[in-house]
Write a structure and sequence with these properties.
alpha+beta, Immunoglobulin-like, 2 domains, seven-stranded mixed sheet, three-stranded antiparallel sheet, about 15% strand, elongated
Length: about 325
């Protein structure tokens, strides 16, 4: 069982993008200024096709001023004004060219005197109808899904969780470490997003990759009766590295954007989404290890080492790449 899992992991590594944590969604925001004027903000990651293949789409009764564009890191940011001769309520807005992109986008519509509407745009749903009375749970649902997607497609965070479970192996220490990791990255995610603490994103991303290398080395050196640092103090190691990963989550959330009037809801549900994705990963790997230990215990260590070397090599490449880029 575990050797099949490790083979699947190896196939996943072969398909991973060079930039482990860059498949992030775009962000389209429409904020009403008066009866006819809307401010349009479009943020699109360069990787994934959004920046080059998509553009904001709106009704024919709206005209757009020339966009003022700039590049912030790996994200294109374009601002413009829409002049609409009719109310947008009941009309469709979204993104043209979404079917050629490799990631999704978050749409936020903030009309005057009405609740904010937040919706995810995907290849299957490129346009949405502006609601007269938006669902109050839209922000919570959208950011929860974004959190789940980020842990599952943020491959460096994903590999850290997998490596942690492979190292500890059993449910009790895994629960302690996962709890410490959760508490730590929640602290730095909230603090960094709200501007209370902060670190430059480039060294954070490099250190996140280094944290995966550290766990891979711990697994490779693992010997019965001679526990390493992480095995002796799993909660402490997970907590310290969790602080780093929280800064990484915050960087992704800053690029997506936060609805100004719904920051607490967005932060809470994004973090809950991250936790839901993390728990799913932990449960899956723990179950596979338990089944392998019961059915084919002699394959457990070789399969674990196979996955470990693949994880370590991949993370080492990311670390070097992030240092020189």
């Amino acid at each position: 069982m575990l050797h099949r899992f490790c083979f699947a992991v190896l196939m996943l590594f072969a398909a991973l993008p060079a930039q482990a944590d860059e498949l992030r969604p775009g962000y389209l925001e429409l904020t009403q200024l008066d009866t006819q004027q809307w401010k349009l903000v479009w943020k699109a990651p360069v990787l994934g096709g959004l920046a080059t293949r998509t553009r904001p789409a709106f009704p024919e009764f709206c005209s757009q001023s020339p966009p003022q564009a700039r590049v912030e890191g790996a994200v294109l940011v374009a601002e413009s004004r829409l002049t609409c001769t009719k109310d947008l309520a009941g009309a469709q807005v979204g993104l043209a060219g979404m079917d050629a992109a490799f990631t999704d986008a978050l749409l936020r519509v903030a009309p005057l005197g009405r609740p904010i509407q937040t919706t995810r745009l995907t290849q299957q749903t490129t346009m949405v109808t502006v609601a007269t009375v938006p669902d109050a749970w839209e922000v919570a649902r959208s950011y929860f899904v974004l959190g789940v997607e980020h842990i599952l497609t943020g491959y460096d965070h994903l590999l850290f969780v997998i490596a942690l479970v492979l190292l500890l192996g059993r449910i009790s220490p895994v629960i302690k470490a996962a709890t410490a990791f959760t508490v730590a990255h929640s602290l730095t995610l909230v603090g960094s997003t709200l501007g209370l603490v902060g670190l430059a994103q480039a060294p954070v991303e490099a250190l996140v990759a280094l944290s995966i290398v550290f766990l891979a080395v711990e697994i490779a050196k693992q010997k019965p009766g001679d526990p390493g640092l992480t095995e002796r103090l799993p909660w402490l190691v997970a907590f310290l590295f969790g602080l780093l990963h929280g800064f990484g989550f915050a960087g992704a959330l800053r690029e997506i954007g936060l609805p100004e009037s719904d920051v607490p809801t967005a932060l809470l549900t994004f973090n809950l989404g991250v936790e839901a994705g993390q728990l799913a990963i932990v449960a899956a790997v723990v179950a596979i290890i338990a089944l392998t230990r019961r059915l084919r215990p002699q394959t457990l260590r070789p399969a674990t080492l196979t996955a470990t070397y693949a994880i370590g090599i991949t993370a080492s490449f990311w670390f070097i790449e992030r240092l020189v880029s």
